[in-house]
Specification:
Blueprint lengths: L1 H7 L2 H14 L11 H6 L2 E7 L7 H8 L5 E8 L6 E10 H11 L3 E2 L2 E2 L1 E4 L25
Antiparallel strand pairs: 1-3, 1-6, 2-3, 4-5
């Protein structure tokens, strides 16, 4: 298709066509190399932190977990509609520091609540194939 369009163009416009094409496709350009060694060295383990007080902030959790090493990220999960904490979150640390933190924090108190700390597991997709949209709510007795 592109070749046919180039042939149909007048000879003076071919040069313009090719220069425009070069903006989108440059065969001389190479993709940047990515070192896998850096990815392996910085592997982080994500931990589930449950039974958090609704008043606990991300900075509270970060301060507690930094006792055992550098914390890469902290996320407290909130309700989409109200913005209120759901009482659990996730912390990312390096593998060895995460193991220490799991061993030390599981069952200990933070802001008056005994924490549940373990390695985060991937989210499992729920299958709703057996339910139809009409089966939610109260069942009707066939009047309508």
């Amino acid at each position: 298709m592109v070749v046919a369009a180039a042939i149909m163009l007048h000879k003076n416009n071919v040069r313009t066509f090719l220069s425009c094409l070069g903006r989108f496709f440059n065969p001389c350009r190479t993709a940047p190399e990515v070192s896998l060694q850096n990815k392996v060295d910085t592997m982080a383990k994500k931990m589930f932190v449950g039974n958090l007080s609704f008043q606990t902030t991300e900075s509270d959790v970060r301060a507690a977990f930094e006792q055992y090493g550098a914390v890469e990220s902290v996320a407290i999960i909130t309700d989409r509609d109200t913005g209120r904490s759901k009482g659990f979150g996730f912390v990312e640390m390096s593998d060895d520091n995460a193991e220490k933190a799991i061993a030390q924090f599981n069952g200990t108190e933070l802001n008056g609540r005994a924490l549940t700390v373990n390695e985060a597991r991937p989210l499992v997709a729920k299958d709703f194939a057996g339910r139809s949209a009409g089966s939610r709510g109260a069942r009707r007795s066939g009047r309508y």
